[in-house]
Amino acid sequence: MKQVVVNLLQKALEELGVKLKKEEIEKVIETPPSSDMGDYAFPCFFLASKLKSEPQQIALELRAKIKKFPMTDFDDIQTSGAYVNFILDRKNMARKIVWEAITQKKNFGKSKIGAGRRTMVEFPSPNTNKPLHLGHLRNMSIGESISKLLEFNGVKVIRANLYNDRGTHICKSMLAYQKWGRDKTPASKKIKSDHFVGDFYVMFNKNLKKNKKLEDDAQAMLMKWEEGDKRVLLLWKLMTNWAINGFNETYKKFGIKHDVTFFESKLYEKGRTLVEEGLKNKLFVKSKKGDVKINLEGEGLGEKILLRSDGTSLYIVQDLALAKIKFEKYKLNESYYVVGSEHDYHFKTLFSILDKLGFKNKGLKHLSYGMVNLPEGKMKGREGTVVDADDLIEKVQELVKKELISRAKLSKRELEKRSLVISLAAIKYFLLKIDIKKDMLFNPKASINFEGDTGPYILYSYARASSILRKAGVQGKFNIGEMEPKELELVKKLSQFPDVALRAYNSLNPSLIANYSFQLAKLFNEFYHACPVIGSENESFRLALVEAFRRVLGNSLNLLGIETLEEM
RNA sequence: GCCCCUAUAGUUCAGUUGGAUAGAACACAGGUUUGCGGAACCUGAAACCAAGGUUCAAAUCCUUGUGGGGGCGCCA
């Protein structure tokens, strides 16, 4: 519908002597602050200097020109100051949007703008020495939602995960296990296996306070690991598998699945050829001590060391290698890294070095998201102020169960299923509604609230729509009579979905979808309070509207990685 | 010390990328029972960190200051 407005404006502007491209016109079109003013607005301020006239005057002339064209889609075109406001034929619009939503179903709102592209999205890439925490939940929510957004716009997505399974942090857990964990296994302790590993990491840090020598022991163990010491490798394999098996349970519960998995342990020496290449091109320099570094002062990034003086490589070298492997093996157009903003500097240097190595315009992007803070401040692993991912999910699920039990009798299985869907909706929505790049506060009390701007509230409105449709039975065609204001508002909100999905795709920001979902759910609740559906004069249209709403909200939630429920 | 990010009701967040009257939610005060599920709906009070600048137009862009967060290892 916007395109019709654009076309009309382009023709009228040309008659006034201004040639503008469609995209230029589309860009300035906005939505008026209130819907009585119109559905689309065109501000004329920027034309004032070109036409050497008052913006108000231009608006009037523009309106006069447009009025002369034959039109079917509009009730009226008005001006208000320097704005030309287009008022759509509401019945026509409602018919169109509702019909499209109902018939296009899952495809409603999709675009093909990304067709033919292949993009890798890497998340959450944890360390294998301790279980996932709240930050990883934000990471996974964002990673999955962005993957869905890309797919919704035609992109072929490859979901990847990189395990940071090598280094001193791993050796710390291993050392603690060697010292104090003899013969115990996750099964014998009846504990989730990644938590089992994490407990030893905590144990290491506790004992480190009493015995500083442990730090050296961990370093010594890393040396043995690098030398290929069989005993150390055996233990490493055992514990890494425990960690990963535990993660896999969490991924499954959280609803994410990877297509590719990378391991730092297999990659960390693969960047050598790249380093040698850089040395040949004099991009990198070897100092007298033997370490290899690159000067990035020009970019304001300082000096970066790539190889230690003993010849072993640093973390960034494997990221260099991995970037290349990704593009060569998977024929990518883009590669996105979902990693917290604390690593902004790392990615700046990484991309800068790759650029210098001739790896230009490869669509590498750091999807940097803000830190998750607690009311008490930052989460600190060693001080035990971390919110554990599994614990959080379990805790929220328990609260949902209590709520469900107080409402209806459910079978155990149904209780489990519903409570999981609702609690994941609560957590994911809470984490996704905030602008990806901003730090956020995770208030445990607010996160278990199920009223207002929350996942459960949105799921509830979906379930109510389903309930109405269930009661009414199957419907076919519909007729539109006079529309109530709430019906119109709901229709307009539905019509915005394709635009919102596209904007979220362009800005790679799921929070737009989250906020839209809430606004849509809220309008629906207002609508069904104001307008009876079943048995009303406009039953056929209202039912269709409810169905369209249900469809669009379902599509919207799907983009957030949130499942829906027919009953709550 | 240097670099990056950030600042909107009591609190947590929006604000269509520079446009018309800055929107919600929570909390607070009050209300909606005989209609499709009250995890709902309605009413009320409450905000752009400060000072300059650019512009027809600034919460949005620039400068400075102040507050908050992060990064500056031959760690990952």
Topology record:
Blueprint: H1 2-15, H2 22-28, E1 40-43, H3 48-51, H4 55-68, E2 74-80, E3 83-88, H5 90-104, E4 118-122, H6 134-152, E5 156-163, H7 168-180, H8 186-189, H9 193-210, H10 213-227, H11 230-254, E6 260-263, H12 264-267, H13 272-280, E7 284-286, E8 292-295, E9 303-307, H14 315-330, E10 334-340, H15 344-356, E11 364-369, E12 372-373, H16 389-407, H17 412-432, E13 440-441, H18 444-447, H19 455-472, H20 485-495, H21 497-507, H22 511-530, H23 539-559
Parallel strand pairs: 4-5, 4-10, 5-6, 10-11, 12-13
Antiparallel strand pairs: 1-3, 2-3, 7-8, 8-9
The chain binds one RNA strand of 76 nucleotides through strand 9, helix 15, strand 13, helix 19 and helix 21.
Would you give an account of this structure?
This protein is α/β, with parallel strands linked by helices. It has a 5-stranded parallel beta sheet, with helices on both faces. Among the domains are: about 1-90, Gyrase A, domain 2 (2-Layer Sandwich), CATH 3.30.1360.70; about 390-560, Isoleucyl-tRNA Synthetase, Domain 1, CATH 1.10.730. Helices cover about 55% and strands about 10% of the residues. The longest helix has 25 residues, at about 230-255.
